[in-house]
Write a structure and sequence with these properties.
A hairpin with a 3-residue loop joins β13 and β14. The strands form two sheets. Strands 7, 8, 9, 10, 11, 12, 13, 14 and 15 form a nine-stranded mixed β-sheet that branches. This protein has a six-stranded antiparallel β-sheet with strand order 2-1-6-5-3-4. The chain folds into two domains: 117 residues, D-amino Acid Aminotransferase, Chain A, domain 1; 157 residues, D-amino Acid Aminotransferase, Chain A, domain 2, CATH 3.20.10. With 283 residues, it is an alpha+beta fold. The protein has eight helices and 15 strands. The protein starts with a strand and ends in an 8-residue tail after the last helix. The chain is 29% helix and 28% strand. Bound molecules: pyridoxal-5'-phosphate. The site of pyridoxal-5'-phosphate has 13 residues, from α6 and β13. One of its GO terms (biological process) is branched-chain amino acid biosynthetic process. InterPro entries: Aminotrans_IV, Aminotransferase-like, BCAT-like_C, BCAT-like_N, Class-IV_PLP-Dep_Aminotrnsfr. Its EC number is 2.6.1.42. Pfam families: Aminotran_4 (PF01063).
Length: 283
C-alpha cells in the first residue's frame, strides 16, 4: 500500500512524520475522509470546502491549492487500486520545536494522504442487518464543528460502544438531546415518516453525507425536521440511522439495548441508502 507524505509517495510501512509534528504532539491538525466509489471520489468539492473552513478556524495555512490536493488524493487511490473504500487526508500545523503557541509562519503544514479499500459486500451485509448504538454524556470540546484530529473522547466512546456490543456511540448534551455519533451524524424517522436530525448550528460536525441527504430528501419528498431529539424519542421512533462518508446511510436497530421499530432496518432508511449516490458528485 502507498501513502503520500509531505511531497512524496512511499510505501505505507515507511510513511512517517517527524516526532515533532504538531499533529503528533498536540493533535494540532484537521482531516477529511471521502468515500471512494467506482474508483472516484464522492462529493469531493464539498469535503474540500469543509477542509478549508476547518483550516481557517484553526488558522492553519492551506498547504496547497485544492486542485493539487485532488491530484494527490486521486493518485493515492489509484496506486492502492481502491475501487470502493475511503481516502484519508490529514493536514497539521507542521513540524516545530515543542511549544503550545503557533510556530513561526515559515513552518509549513504537513500533508498526509492514505487510502484503503473496504469490503463492499460486508458493508452491504452490515447495512442489511443494521447496527447498535449506545448513548453517553457529551464530553467533547465545544468546537466539534471543526473536523480536528483531536479525537480522544471519540476514541473512548467507540471503545465503550464496542465493549457493549454496539458499533456507534451517540452523545447526549446537558439538555438531554442527542448531538451526534462519535464518527457520524444521528437521525431518526418518526412514526408518521418525518426524518429528524439536529441542525448544524450547534453541537455537531456539519456532515457532508448529512448535507447531501437533506437534498436527497427534498427530491424524494421525504419530510425533514432539523431539530434535536432525545434518546427516549429515538427509542420510540419508527426508524433510526447514522450518516458518514464511510457508512453513507447506516440503519440503527437498537439504542442502549432497546430495539428500534421492529428491530430491522426501516423502509425509509433503506430507500435513502439506495438512492443516495444518485445525488452524489463523483470526481
Ligand atoms: N460527526 C462526526 C463526529 C464525524 O466524525 C463524522 C465523520 O466522520 C460525521 C459526523 C459525518 O461527517 P461526513 O458525512 O462528512 O463523513
Amino acid at each position: 500500500r502507498t501513502a503520500y507524505v509531505n511531497g512524496r509517495y512511499c510505501d505505507l510501512r515507511d510513511a512517517c512524520v517527524n516526532v515533532e509534528d504538531r499533529g503528533y504532539q498536540f493533535a494540532d491538525g484537521v482531516y477529511e475522509v471521502c468515500e471512494v466509489r467506482g474508483a472516484r471520489l464522492v462529493d469531493f468539492p464539498r469535503h474540500m470546502v469543509r477542509l478549508q473552513r476547518s483550516l481557517r478556524e484553526l488558522q492553519i495555512d492551506e498547504p496547497m491549492p485544492i486542485t493539487a490536493l485532488a491530484i494527490i488524493m486521486r493518485e493515492v487511490v489509484r496506486r492502492n487500486r481502491v475501487t470502493y473504500g475511503i481516502v484519508y487526508l490529514q493536514v497539521t500545523r507542521g513540524v516545530a520545536r515543542r511549544d503550545h503557541a503557533f510556530p513561526p509562519s515559515s513552518v509549513k503544514p504537513s500533508v498526509v494522504v492514505t487510502a484503503r479499500a473496504l469490503d463492499y459486500e460486508k458493508k452491504q451485509q452490515t447495512a442489511a442487518t443494521g447496527i447498535k448504538v449506545i448513548t453517553l454524556a457529551e464530553n467533547r470540546w465545544p468546537r466539534v464543528d471543526i473536523k480536528s484530529v483531536s479525537l480522544l473522547p471519540n476514541v473512548l466512546a467507540k471503545q465503550e460502544a464496542r465493549e457493549k456490543g454496539a458499533y456507534e456511540a451517540w452523545y447526549v448534551d446537558s439538555d438531554g438531546f442527542v448531538t451526534e455519533g462519535a464518527s457520524s451524524n444521528a437521525w431518526i424517522v418518526t412514526k408518521d415518516g418525518r426524518a429528524v436530525t439536529r441542525s448544524v448550528d450547534r453541537g455537531i460536525l456539519a456532515g457532508i453525507t448529512r448535507a447531501v441527504l437533506v437534498e436527497v430528501m427534498g427530491a424524494l419528498q421525504i419530510r425533514l425536521e432539523e431539530r434535536p431529539f432525545t434518546p427516549a424519542e429515538a427509542r420510540e421512533a419508527a426508524e433510526a440511522f447514522v450518516t458518514s462518508a464511510s457508512q453513507i446511510v447506516m440503519p440503527v436497530v437498537a439504542i442502549d439495548g432497546r430495539v428500534v421499530g421492529n428491530g430491522q432496518p426501516g423502509g425509509i432508511t433503506r430507500q435513502l441508502r439506495e438512492e443516495f449516490h444518485r445525488f452524489s458528485a463523483f470526481s
